Amino acid sequence: MKYAVITGASKGLGEAIAKRLINEQIAIISVSRTENEEIRGLAIAKGIDYTHYSCNLSLETEIQEVFMEIAHSIFQKNPNEILLFNNAGVIDPIQTVGNLDQTPIIRNIQVNLIAPILITNLFFSKAQVTNTKVLVINITSGAAVRSIEGWSVYCSAKAGLNMFTQTAAIEQAELKTTNKIIAFSPGVMDTSMQETIRSSSENAFKELEKFKELKEKSLLLQAEVVANSLVDLILSDEMESGQIYRINDLLN
Ligand SMILES: NC(=O)c1ccc[n+]([C@@H]2O[C@H](COP(=O)([O-])OP(=O)(O)OC[C@H]3O[C@@H](n4cnc5c(N)ncnc54)[C@H](OP(=O)(O)O)[C@@H]3O)[C@@H](O)[C@H]2O)c1
To answer: d(Cα 222, Cα 33) in Å, to the nearest integer?
Structure first.
């Protein structure tokens, strides 16, 4: 039996990944602050094992508590493989440096960077003692490698996530484990994160008009298309640990 743990499965890319994996008969553990009832319904209809855990990933204590419980429950079932999608993300604060508020800065780094590090660390540690294969998929962004004015915190968190991915991959290779860890850059998708971006101010975000145009001209990718390409890569077993994959490379 394969299990997939997906953070941020309540909407956007996480929701699309969960739906595709249910159709692939993979058991789902969903983690976010709110639950998506459609996913629960789909899992029940297809007879797939599904559990939702409510967790605020900006709070370290909640992460520790919830993920200890998740790890305890799935590793003891001796799964063939665990897929861990560190997908939950936040774009805020959108603001220039010097005008940022402290709380959203900390929340952004907690959700986008610290949570994936804590969860991956816990899962690799459990994998060592149970001999379970863990595949970690960290959802990154083009903003990890391109400086975007107004997005300094988001760019920094995603750049950190790329480096964490590459470093952990080298370590796993050195240890000769079967675990793999990749990052995946999904491109610009038509999700609620883009709504947040379009509702920011031009003073805070220089590229605002460009992003509004992407929506007006229907140039945003659909989350389902992105999720399908990512899941195809994972299920093909061709994913190379330490790689930072980009959606455009998979679609072409
Ligand atoms: N959309 C894009 O154009 C784009 C581009 C590049 C990269 N990405 C990356 O793709 C990933 C998915 O983004 P998306 O566009 O699908 O975003 P989205 O539609 O805004 O969904 C974000 C998800 O993250 C969860 N989340 C946010 N804050 C959380 C918190 N404090 N605790 C727990 N869960 C939290 C949300 O769940 P709840 O609200 O229910 O908690 C939601 O399920 C992110 O990592 C994002 O950085 C997106």
So the answer is: 23
- Pairwise CA distance, residues 189 & 220, whole Å: 5
- Residue pair 16/190 in contact (Cβ under 8 Å)? The answer is no
Judge whether 169 and 181 are in contact, CB under 8 Å: yes
Residue 190 Cα to ligand 1 midpoint, Å, equals: 12
Protein residue with least CA distance to atom 17, ligand 1: 193
Q: Give me the phi and psi of 2, to 5 degrees please.
A: -100, 145
Residues with CB under 6 A from ligand 1: 8, 10-14, 32-34, 55-58, 87-90, 111, 139, 141, 186, 188-189, 191-194
Task: Report yes or no: 16 and 226 within 8 Å, Cβ to Cβ.
Answer: yes
DSSP calls for 141-175: -GGGTS--TT-HHHHHHHHHHHHHHHHHHHHHHHT
Q: What is the pLDDT along the chain (252 residues), one digit of tens a residue?
A: 899 999 999 999 999 999 999 999 999 999 999 999 999 999 999 999 999 999 999 999 999 999 999 999 999 999 999 999 999 999 999 999 999 999 999 999 999 999 999 999 999 999 999 999 999 999 999 999 999 999 999 999 999 999 999 999 999 999 999 999 999 999 999 999 999 999 999 999 999 999 999 999 999 999 999 999 999 999 998 999 999 999 999 997
| CA 107 – CA 127 distance, rounded (Å) | 29
The residue whose CA has the least distance to atom 7 of ligand 1 is: 141
- What residues are annotated to the active site? 154
Owner of token pair 């975007």: 148
- Can you read off the two tokens belonging to residue 89? 């993300």
Task: Identify which of 83, 91, 113, 248 has the alpha carbon closest to the alpha carbon of residue 181.
Answer: 83
